[in-house]
Amino acid sequence: MSKKSILNKKSLSFLEKYINNPSPTGFESGGQKMWLDYIKPYIDTHIVDTYGTVVGVINPEHKYKVVIEAHADEISWFVHYITKDGFIYLVRNGGSDHQIAPSKRVTIHTDKGGVDAVFGWPAIHTRRGGKEEVPKLENIFLDCGARTAKEVKALGIEVGNVVTYKDSFMILNKRFFVGRALDNRIGGFMIAEVARLLKENKKKLPFGLYITNAVQEEVGLRGAQMITETIRPNVAIVTDVTHDTHTPMINKIKEGDCAMEKGPVVTFGPSVQNNLLKLIIETAKKNKIDIQRAAASRSTGTDTDAFAFNTGGVASALISLPLRYMHTTVETVAQKDVESVIHLIYNSLLKIKNNHDFRYLK
After folding, report:
1. Fewest CB atoms within 10 Å of the CB: 104, 181, 266, 362?
2. According to the model, what pLDDT value does residue 130 have?
């Protein structure tokens, strides 16, 4: 298969709509419906579990099961406290960064629909002398244009409403994708593209393939934990994002050395099954796909851990996409790397045999 032009106009149109659509942790249903609609032409059937993880299945009749997985949820906020003057204080839903919040526009998702609001912050003119107050969870707040708590309630806003940023997908310098929640809906996009390529290239797999878009990764890998019990796979290839460490203020000694446009990152660590990882690395070499390496001292912090240590142990591996500015509204990845991850997963699947034995000792 050629490494050129695998992302067509339909693919890129879907990517833009998918990234722009809110999909906060615990409230992923809108994005999940959009994702399922996109992959339906490329699968035989699908599963939707109790909490909203969606799985497209190819060859459901096979007993040997291989998962390719990403997570669908994005970081967000919850309405936590409303003052008598109509200001709104929040708690995190996932690892939301309080330092980027001031001056951001948001949507408060209510039973009546979306309500616009902004993160307020005191003007620079009013911050004189001494040590300036920095943004922190205790002092950032939303202004929805209400002057009283009663007005806030009249808008349909209540404690427990989820809040997402209002930012749109864009392409930077014709080769970088930018948007919020590329962590990790770009992963959902990539595994969907693998399904598309398998269908369009008429590839017949000798096993059941479970294209899995899991919920609630940002709060502890919960969706992956649940769906592993449902599928009970033999193999799991997980894709997520990792840090591009070639930007200012990042210490490579602590964070490792990975960069955009240098290829997918394969991880070495306890939850990564060595023989599956070897297959992936050999696939990269055979198909001339540049890869980078990372080490995870204890856990990967991704859904890989949930698959690896569940149902008696699933042979699992992690293929990561280098990303800049994680958990901000301008997360950035290289189109070149996106295509390389798709190629690597696609070609790795073609190397797996029915009843492939990845055990450490054979």
Report:
1. 362
2. 76
Q: What are the extents of the domains in the chain?
A: 9-74+180-351, 76-165
> Could you give the CA distance from residue 9 to residue 20 in angstroms, rounded to a whole number?
17
Task: Say what the alpha-carbon torsion angle 215, 219, 224, 227 is, to the nearest 10 degrees.
Answer: -60
If we measure between CA atoms, which residue out of 173, 198, 183, 130 comes closest to residue 347? 198
How high is the pLDDT of residue 2?
Answer: 42
pLDDT at 362: 65
Distances (CA, A) of 86 to 41, 82, 157, 190: 48, 6, 11, 42
Phi-psi region of 99 (alpha: psi -120 to 50; beta: other; left: phi over 0): alpha
User: Any idea which architecture 76-165 has in CATH?
Assistant: Beta Barrel (2.40)
Interval 8-48: pLDDT, tens? 999 999 999 999 999 999 999 999 999 999 999 999 999 99
As assigned by CATH, the class of the 9-74+180-351 domain is alpha beta
Residues 129-138: contacts with CB under 8 Å, at least 24 apart: 134/99, 135/98, 135/99, 135/101, 135/102, 136/98, 137/90, 137/91, 137/92, 137/98
> Which distant-in-sequence residues (6+ apart) come within 8 Å of 255 by Cβ?
243, 245
Q: Taking the model in full, what pTM does it have? A: 0.96
Rounded CA separation 23/30 (Å): 7
Q: pLDDT at position 4, please?
A: 67
How big is the chain by its Cα radius of gyration, in Å?
21
Q: What is the pLDDT of residue 95?
A: 95
